[in-house]
Design a protein that fits this description.
Layout (H helix, E strand, L loop, with lengths): L2 H18 L3 E6 L4 H6 L2 E3 L1 H10 L5 E5 L2 H10 L5 E3 L15 H13 L5 E6 L4 H9 L3 E3 L4 H9 L4 E5 L2 H10 L7 E4 L10 H6 L2 E4 L11 H10 L4 E4 L5 H6 L2 E2 L2 H10 L5 E5 L2 H10 L4 E4 L6 H4 L3 H9 L11 H15 L2
Parallel strand pairs: 1-2, 1-3, 3-4, 5-6, 5-7, 7-9, 8-9, 10-11, 10-12, 12-13
Helix pairs in contact: 1-15, 3-4, 4-16, 6-16
The structure holds iron/sulfur cluster.
The site of iron/sulfur cluster has 11 residues, from helix 14.
Length: 346
């Protein structure tokens, strides 16, 4: 939809938010559409928004513009007297669906059978609340791309080995950044018998990676990085750590969504940045900083984030009392909270 066609909707959205006042906290992820981001009381990556949900003192309702696992994390971290509304309940995340508790149990049993029970699980924020709860019950923590390094160090200070899921690439990129060699990592494939890893290899590993990925970030290639360098000599190429390791190595830098936002904000006027992450964020940064050139490494859109339209958000805000809140079973909520709080304390 064009921005002109959105204008009456935007006006009604602003009016609805003004009417609701401090009763509502609108949290919007960086990958949301520009109109929705423009309205957010807080705009951030999943870590910043989890913190915002945990720290908010005033709002009665937290409206979460992001995908389901983010709204679930806000539900776990909210105060007793608050509720969380997810305006587009169909917006999930394929990566979060690449690991469940049954699969995690199989890996855990295989680790124990291999004599590698001394393993700390670390789960990416991009996972279901049930998997976070599984990790919380086993002494592990959640991490995001902003604090994965700290989470890995925390886990390895407690045990000789960690299990990281569901994103293979963030796991490998983080372990490499900590100076680990590929020989210290193994890849557990939940679809393969025995995870496709021998017991000996499991016992030797320092990091057990999980075969999961984000289709938005694995769309970037080394050939695109080379083509960008040919086309825009002198440009800085920056990518998200959910990208393939070879892409991260070919780029000039890699970091979380907040890192990428900061890199553009701090770049010199006149400079060129080519960025490998979700297209809505890149387009917004390009519009926000017209004195520098901000380009996508390749156009890669998250269709799950895009599901939430301004019209749907309007329907939610204009009928807020009738919206069903995000709900989780009490035992999942309590155990997921353990894992999330360990992250917030990192
Ligand atoms: S960008 Fe990737 S990890 Fe993030 S919500 Fe979309 S599919 Fe999931």
């Amino acid at each position: 939809m064009s921005s002109t066609a959105e204008d009456p909707v935007m006006e009604r959205l602003r009016a609805a938010l003004a009417r609701l006042g401090p009763d509502v906290l609108l949290l919007t992820h960086h990958y949301q559409r520009a109109g929705i981001v423009a309205l957010g009381h807080r705009v951030g990556d999943s870590y910043e928004l989890a913190r915002a949900a945990a720290e908010n003192q005033n709002a009665r309702t937290i409206v979460f513009c992001g995908v389901r696992f983010m709204a679930e994390a806000a539900e776990v971290l909210r105060r007793e007297d608050q509720r969380v509304v997810h305006p587009e309940p169909l917006a999930g995340c394929p990566m979060a669906d690449m690991a469940d508790e049954g699969q995690a149990d199989s890996a855990w049993r295989a680790l124990a059978a291999a004599g590698a029970a001394d393993t700390v699980p670390v789960v990416y924020m991009n996972s279901s609340a049930a998997l976070k709860a599984w990790v919380g019950e086993r002494g592990g923590c959640v991490c995001t791309s902003s604090n994965a390094q700290r989470a890995f160090e925390w886990a390895l200070s407690r045990a000789p080995r960690l299990l990281f899921f569901p994103d293979e690439h963030l796991g490998r990129n983080t372990a490499r950044r900590l100076g680990m060699a590929d020989a210290e990592m193994v890849l557990w494939d939940p679809a393969a018998s025995g995870g496709g890893v021998s017991p000996e290899a499991l016992a030797r590993a320092r990091v057990v990676l999980w075969k999961g990925f984000c289709h938005v970030h694995t769309a970037f290639t080394v050939a695109q990085v080379r083509a960008a360098r040919d086309r825009w000599p002198g440009a800085r190429v920056l990518v998200h750590p959910e990208c393939l390791s070879e892409v991260v190595q070919a780029a000039d830098g890699a970091g979380s969504t907040s890192f990428l936002v900061r890199a553009v904000a701090e770049a010199d006027p006149g400079s060129t940045l080519v960025i490998g992450t979700e297209i809505n964020l890149i387009s917004r940064l390009a519009a926000q900083y017209p004195d520098r050139t901000v380009l996508p490494l390749h156009r890669s859109l998250c269709p799950n984030m895009y599901r939430l339209s301004p019209e749907k958000l309007l329907e939610t805000l204009e009928n807020l009392d009738a919206q069903p809140p995000v709900e989780l079973p009490a035992h999942i909520n309590a155990s997921a909270k353990l894992a999330l709080q360990r992250m917030l304390e990192l």
